[in-house]
Amino acid sequence: MQRLSGRVAVVTGAASGIGLATVRRFRDEGATVVLVDVDEKAGAKAAAEVGGRFIAADVTSEEQVEGVFAATVEAFGRVDVAFNNAGISPPDDDSILTTGLDAWKRVQEVNLTSVYLCCKAVIPRMLRQGKGSIINTASFVARMGAATSQISYTASKGGVLAMSRELGVQFAREGIRVNALCPGPVDTPLLRELFAKDPERAARRLVHIPMGRFAHAEEIAAAVAFLASDDAGFITASEFLVDGGISGA
Ligand code: NAD
Hints:
about 15% strand; oxidoreductase activity, acting on the CH-OH group of donors, NAD or NADP as acceptor; globular; alpha/beta; binds nicotinamide-adenine-dinucleotide
């Protein structure tokens, strides 16, 4: 299927996990892909393996984010899809009882402020084109009391959800669709790192997933490609769940 033929897509957090799987899927669907990641080595390796242009950038920097979208339009003439996906899980125990202000701020900066910066940079460019699709990675934890004891992470993803809804409504008549992607637990380095710190957490989490397993990154990428494509032409301001039934249980 080549639903993104001729389209130009920017993917942040492209060097690993969901981002990398989506770069592959976008490529397979015919898109020209710009990979963005703060990890220069992994990003360059990913672009060499999968194809596409790599731009090393920290998505918490307004200047660098603006530079990514300016360079994309300069190189390829347009930007049709922005998958604002880079994110981190909190470094330590993220309970309200223990999380310090610095840790809280860092998670908001990488998970939420970055999405604001990417939307701020890409929307004026999409407005000029009269079309665009933005997919912001939130999480199932933004929609439910997940009892993850991850206060800064959950709050950051709730912000992504609310911002995406707001922007989706604001720009619906201008041809720009904005959706929040809400994955359930996905087998990626981010999740593995979290479970390595607390092995029992994996078992506790699995119990709550009706499908009884974690998602493969490719299953999330398939949903992102759908949202990016014209097949999702009437979908905006949505909370797009890809969670194995976790939030329905
Ligand atoms: P990952 O750790 O495999 O990949 C994240 C990528 O983002 C890495 O390549 C990292 O270098 C990059 N990154 C981190 N900070 C950055 C910055 N400041 N600037 C640019 N790049 C940066 O993680 P993943 O599991 O693929 O997660 C991707 C997104 O999906 C995140 O937003 C995460 O919160 C979200 N998510 C993940 C899960 C899950 O279970 N894995 C579930 C729901 C939502």
